[in-house]
Design a protein that fits this description.
This protein is of the alpha/beta class. About 40% of the residues lie in helices and about 15% in strands. The strands form four sheets. The chain has a six-stranded parallel β-sheet with strand order 3-2-1-4-5-6, with helices on both faces. Strand 10, helix 16 and strand 11 form a beta-alpha-beta unit. Helix 13 runs antiparallel to helix 14. The chain is elongated, with a radius of gyration of 25 Å. The N terminus and C terminus are likely disordered. The structure holds nicotinamide-adenine-dinucleotide. Nicotinamide-adenine-dinucleotide binds next to helix 2 and helix 6.
Amino acid sequence: MDVRWPLRRIVNFMRITVIGSGHVGLVSGACFAELGHDVILVDNDPAKYEALQRGECPIHEKYLPELFQRHHGTKLEFSKSLAASVDKSEAIFIAVGTPPAINGEADLSFVESVAREIATSIKDYKIVVGKSTVPVYTSEWVRKVMLLNGAPANLFDVASNPEFLREGTAVSDFLYPDRIVIGTDNKACAERLRLIYEPLLDGSYYQRPDSLLPHKRAQAPPPLIVTTAKSAELIKYASNAFLAMKISFINAVATICESVGADVDQVRKGIGSDARIGGQFLNPGLGYGGSCFPKDLSAYRAVARECGYDFRLLEEVVRINNEQRERFLRKVRSVLWTLKGKRLAVLGLAFKGGTDDIRESPAISVVRSLLGEGCKIQAYDPAAADNARELLGTGNIRYATSAMEAARDADALLVLTDWEEFRTIDLDRLRELLRYPIVIDGRNIFSPATMAEHGFTYTSVGRGDVYHDASGGQKSPVAAKKSADPQPDVDAVKTP
Ligand code: NAD
């Protein structure tokens, strides 16, 4: 038995510090508490710390408030002092941001500064675990920085434990993961990390009568993948790059569908039913955004460049993704003709449904372009309006408190984020409220046939457009001949 490891570990739970209380840190910390561990969440943002102390959840994330209610003040504590928290803990998770530097590489200065601080606080054995998404070799650098700053080599081990949660479904992703990856070159350290996740790995958490999401209990426990630290770091970047590639791939297919009059829904069903491909992440639309894919692709390319490999495939993935926003704006112009002075209802500002995160949001980018072209925007987002207001201000943009309020008297409605609640809005009421019954759907949340039935002119991505004949009332889906190329098919263009 390793004397550095407390005996209580065999029968009990662990004391964990998570540094960084952002999307990953908060969710990981709350979920570790849910698994039975004693968790201290550390953040150096005083406003965030105060809000957390008061029991406020600073991000919109399903089930996180429930976890706060269960564990706040008992198994889940908050601290501003990294040193004091490290002192009380056996495992330290680093979950600070790794934003993009100007040259596209990941900026690891937050990780380095945290590693320095941990080093100067260590008095007994700890495992230091990277949860942030970082380039290969970061675990090695963390170890070197800690040694340079006086941490005795026998008092710590460093591991990588990449996080695969998705904003919007983060708690569920954490507690019911597809896999858990542990990257370390030290067997004993891997075993300690395994123990932290044991309630998930042996399925005992799912059997607990109070486990969150009981409807998912039947799910098999996740596999544990133990790798070297370098492999774990690469697994995370490669996974994100592959997912982004799937999104750009289906967007490219959608463009062909528009040109030839095929239906991307039928095509993606045909592609996705192949078990080797799978149907997830084959949703055409405005493209990916958020705080991860754009920066991780750029950092992954930088890693490849440093290794002497030009990962050109990723360049194309990014180019297709950026093009989707341009193509969408061309669609808006081709349906509405001129934009200056048009009043547009916008549904969705977050980078995806289920979150209030607007970092790198395609919706924000489209709204900015429309404002730049002189449009007046009436926007509704179930969670991201406050964040958007801070970024976009209030000039020529009004933030509605419901989809219907946003739609009132607008010349057209644009769907920019895939919130579930948008799928069930009352289409008849929507049609009454809009000045013209025009919907341009950047997320394919409605079906063309339904929109035809409800009397809309409807344009989406990779599917046939629907034109509402305002003169005679005949409403029928029309096979899409029109692509969103710079020259619109003038026969197809109807202007309000
Ligand atoms: P975030 O920006 O939401 O949160 C980071 C937090 O770290 C902030 O609250 C910040 O105040 C805090 N922080 C920074 N320096 C600190 C310090 N020295 N001491 C204490 N706190 C400090 O970031 P995030 O979205 O949670 O992402 C964190 C990491 O996880 C990133 O590397 C990201 O790529 C990765 N990741 C993110 C997601 C996601 O969906 N957001 C998913 C998987 C992985």
